[in-house]
């Protein structure tokens, strides 16, 4: 086997190293993507589970607080429901007994009730007018009395209140005889059991906080002090209590925050009260266990990925070396084949180039031969068309000559009509003159007849015959004058028509003159066209002869090119 030179060996080592490095990077990248795609959803689910556990712990404490409130209300209602004590209050209200008698009668009863409950530390009984009647145990200041409304049937809770250094809960219960209110019991309860609930930090680590608070008049009032005095935590807890009481819904604050020092707060309202309970714990502490598990899983996946990558690298190194050696051998063989193929390709391309040139020349000559044939045919067509145009031009020239002769004849006729119209106009003028004379003659005859009639009147009987003749002459004179008037009007109309005919004849004469001029110009143009077409006919005949000679020469060139092409095809292997 042929040895590989140093330069080639260096290139091979680089290729081998590149294959191993890129394969390792690809495997590590895929492992990281798989790890992230599996760890992130798992971490989210675990965090949500921790938040639900926090809500479950809050729910347990909420039930304890609600149980305490329910028990306190039940105890207060049991104290208010003792029959004998109620009857004494009714008697006191009616004035049947005085206050000392009332105190003596019901103090033992209330003391017994006080002793039966460890959480009850004081009982104050009020009459129907809410005045103090009896008080046992711890004194309840009047400012803290919790008195239900007039129509209330159930106990109401107030608290926490501060008496001395202790916090208490006040429960006000109406004393009822059927539906009639006879008095009120104000019972004071210890809230130490509630304090045990809030101070139970089981499962809340070192930053956990349980808060029980009331929300009234827009203010949050804590039952017990916080063990963590952080202002941020207290502000968040106040907001959670306000949210729980105002909306009467449970929920989480900052539950989706995965990092940072903010606390995760679960809150829930206490039923039938204006209280709220909340549990807060630092998010880092809450999710610390989950973070450690996620880190351990991530480390395990990273170690497995590294081990897998190392094993693959150990397998790839020898395989890559063998593949590179085989690739080098194959590359040399391919290079030899490529060189030989390139030589043959060059020779073949040279011959094919020559053949392509001959084919292109032959194709061009064929096209040229076809074009020559088309030119010959078109030249013949042009010659035939030119001869036809020459015949049509000669016919047009003859027609123009005949039109010119007719126009000249028409001009002579129009001139004769104009002369006759002028003669007619003169005759009409003479008739008008004669008509004027007749009209004057009729006027004079009428005057003579009028004078004759006057003279006949003067002659008397002798002149009657003359008067008749004068009257007839006068009638004839009137008729002559009317006839002369009509003749005068007719002569006027004739003169108008004569003038119109004369004007039309003059315009017709001018139009005929322009037609004559145009016919002469047309005749001259036809003569020029006839000469040009004669020249076109001669040129077309010359073109036909030239294209026939060109087609013959092209045919000889095509035969020569076909002979050269045949010889070239014989030489190509």
Account of the 3D structure:
The protein has 573 residues and is α+β, with helices and mostly antiparallel strands. It has a domain at 361-569: Methyl-accepting chemotaxis protein (Helix Hairpins), CATH 1.10.287. 72% of the residues lie in helices and 13% in strands. The chain contains eight helices and ten strands. The strands form two sheets. It has a five-stranded antiparallel β-sheet with strand order 2-1-5-4-3. Strand 6 and strand 7 (219-222) form a beta hairpin. The longest helix has 172 residues, at 288-459. Residues 1-8 and 256-260 have low confidence and may be disordered. GO terms for molecular function: transmembrane signaling receptor activity.
Top-tier CATH class of the domain at 361-569: Mainly Alpha
Can you list the strand order of the major beta sheet?
2-1-5-4-3
- The percentage helix is over 70%
CATH superfamily of the domain at 361-569: Methyl-accepting chemotaxis protein
What is the CATH architecture annotation of the domain at 361-569? Answer: Orthogonal Bundle
Beta-strand level of the residues, as a percent range? 5-15%
Apparent shape: flat
Number of alpha- plus pi-helical segments: 8
Structure class: alpha+beta
Which spans of ≥5 residues are poorly predicted at pLDDT below 50? 1-8, 256-260
**How many strands in all?**
10
Mean pLDDT: 78
CATH topology of the domain at 361-569: Helix Hairpins
Radius of gyration: 72 Å
Compile the SSE list and pairings.
Layout: H1 6-80, H2 83-94, H3 99-116, E1 120-126, E2 132-137, E3 156-163, E4 166-177, E5 180-190, H4 192-198, E6 209-216, E7 219-222, H5 231-247, E8 251-253, E9 263-269, E10 275-282, H6 283-286, H7 288-459, H8 464-571
Antiparallel strand pairs: 1-2, 1-5, 3-4, 4-5, 6-7, 6-10, 8-9, 9-10
């Amino acid at each position: 086997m042929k040895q590989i030179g140093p330069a080639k060996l260096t290139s091979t080592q680089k290729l081998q190293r590149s294959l191993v490095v890129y394969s390792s990077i690809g495997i590590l990248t895929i492992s990281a993507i798989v790890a992230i795609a599996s760890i992130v959803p798992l971490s989210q689910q675990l965090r949500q589970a921790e938040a639900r556990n926090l809500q479950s712990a809050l729910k347990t404490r909420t039930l304890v607080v609600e149980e305490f409130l329910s028990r306190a209300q039940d105890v207060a209602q049991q104290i208010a429901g003792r029959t004998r004590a109620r009857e004494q209050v009714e008697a006191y209200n009616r004035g049947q007994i005085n206050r000392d008698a009332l105190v003596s009668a019901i103090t033992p009863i209330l003391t017994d009730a006080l002793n039966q409950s460890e959480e009850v530390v004081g009982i104050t009984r009020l009459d129907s007018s809410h005045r103090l009647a009896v008080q046992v145990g711890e004194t309840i200041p009047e400012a803290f009395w919790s008195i239900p409304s007039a129509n209330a049937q159930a106990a109401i809770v107030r608290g926490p209140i501060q008496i001395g250094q202790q916090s208490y809960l006040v429960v006000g219960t109406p004393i009822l005889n059927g539906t009639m209110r006879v008095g009120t019991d104000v019972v004071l309860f210890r809230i130490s059991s509630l304090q045990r609930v809030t101070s139970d930090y089981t499962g809340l680590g070192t930053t956990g906080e349980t808060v029980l608070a009331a929300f009234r008049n827009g203010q949050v009032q804590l039952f017990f002090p916080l063990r963590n005095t952080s202002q941020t935590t207290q502000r968040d807890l106040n907001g959670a209590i306000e949210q729980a009481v105002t909306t009467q819904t449970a929920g989480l604050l900052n539950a989706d925050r995965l990092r940072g020092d903010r606390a995760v707060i679960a809150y829930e309202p206490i039923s039938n009260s204006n209280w709220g309970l909340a549990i807060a714990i630092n998010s880092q502490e809450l999710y610390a266990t989950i973070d450690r598990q996620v880190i351990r899983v991530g480390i395990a996946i990273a170690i497995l990925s590294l081990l897998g990558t190392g094993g693959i690298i150990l397998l790839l190194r020898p395989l890559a070396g063998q593949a590179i050696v085989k690739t080098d051998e194959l590359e040399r063989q391919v290079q030899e084949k490529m060189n030989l193929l390139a030589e043959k390709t060059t020779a073949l391309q040279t011959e094919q180039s020559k053949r392509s040139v001959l084919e292109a020349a032959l194709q061009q000559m064929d096209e040229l031969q076809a074009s020559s044939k088309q030119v010959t045919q078109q030249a013949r067509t042009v010659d035939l068309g030119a001869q036809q145009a020459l015949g049509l031009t000669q016919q047009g020239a003859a027609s123009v000559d005949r039109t010119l002769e007719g126009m000249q004849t028409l001009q002579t006729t129009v001139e004769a009509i104009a002369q006759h119209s002028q003669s007619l106009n003169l005759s009409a003028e003479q008739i008008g003159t004669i008509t004027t004379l007749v009209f004057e003659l009729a006027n004079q005859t009428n005057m003579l007849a009028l004078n004759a009639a006057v003279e006949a009147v003067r002659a008397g009987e002798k002149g009657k015959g003359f008067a008749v003749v004068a009257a007839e002459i006068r009638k004839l004179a009137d008729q002559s004058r009317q006839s002369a008037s009509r003749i005068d009007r007719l002569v006027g109309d004739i003169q108008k028509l004569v003038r119109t005919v004369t004007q039309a004849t003059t315009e017709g004469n001018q139009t005929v003159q322009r037609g004559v001029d145009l016919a002469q110009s047309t005749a001259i143009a036809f003569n020029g066209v006839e000469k040009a077409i004669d020249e076109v006919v001669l040129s077309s005949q010359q073109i036909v002869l030239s294209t026939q000679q060109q087609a013959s020469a092209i045919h000889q060139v095509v035969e020569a090119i076909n002979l050269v092409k045949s010889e070239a095809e014989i030489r190509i292997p």
